Amino acid sequence: MELRVGGRFRLGRKIGSGSFGDIYLGQNIVTQEEVAIKLECVKTKHPQLHIESRLYKLMSGGVGIPQVKWCGYEGEYNVMVMELLGPSLEDLFNFCSRKFTLKTVLLLADQMLSRIEYIHSKDFIHRDIKPDNFLMGLGKKGNLVYIIDFGLAKKYRCSRTHAHIPYRENKNLTGTARYASVNTHLGIGLFMIPFAISHLFCSLVALLCHFYFFDAAHKFMLRRFLSIPQCDCILFQKS
């Protein structure tokens, strides 16, 4: 039996997972266009998909922001239908034997930083910056880097005054540990731009050097780094 969502999208095979849902290949039965369909059980304790879809719409029009084609619910699932994209940077990294050249990393970094900067201009931070959440486009947009998965995104400043929302301490880890900033591991809330940039830095180091700051083998380096008094000035500024 053929499964459809939104009356015009055919549901196909599973192609991935996001922060709060599974992603399937789909097709518009009218135009034959292939799409990505994200499903989230309506009974989930903390539904996020409709919130995420609103953020995509808020970000719409920005370079490297995928288009949302339909959002609603179907049976037991909240549904978001999106523009289909290509492989993630993590996929490409694996395809290239887990090593990119410096030139490749710099070209990617330029686009990745632009995507993060655009999100920040809309008063939000992503909170899960990692190679898995940057995807390449398809066809004529094959060289364009997209950013996806706003399931953990949060507002960091007032839209009217641009005053920063105070960060909170003793927070549980948000995002992915191996790409998280030092402050995130220390339980300081992700409400400041430097924290987001440090997530990007960790991602770029991983792509270039195959080095994860918070792999078990490297935790001793973090402890030694934190023992240096000057680190307080660099990493833990509170304004």
TrEMBL record:
It holds the Pfam family Pkinase. Belongs to the protein kinase superfamily. Its EC number is 2.7.11.1. Residues 9-239 form the Protein kinase domain. ATP binds at K38. GO terms for molecular function: ATP binding; protein serine/threonine kinase activity. PANTHER family: CASEIN KINASE-RELATED. Gene3D superfamilies: Phosphorylase Kinase, domain 1 (3.30.200.20), Transferase(Phosphotransferase) domain 1 (1.10.510.10). InterPro entries: CK1_Ser-Thr_kinase, Kinase-like_dom_sf, Prot_kinase_dom, Protein_kinase_ATP_BS, Ser/Thr_kinase_AS. It comes from Ascaris suum. Keywords: ATP-binding, Kinase, Membrane, Nucleotide-binding, Serine/threonine-protein kinase, Transferase, Transmembrane, Transmembrane helix. The keyword Ribosomal protein does not apply. It comes from the Eukaryota. The lineage of its organism: Eukaryota, Metazoa, Ecdysozoa, Nematoda, Chromadorea. SUPFAM superfamilies: Protein kinase-like (PK-like). The keyword ATP-binding applies. This is non-specific serine/threonine protein kinase. The chain crosses the membrane at residues 188-214. SMART domains: S_TKc (SM00220).
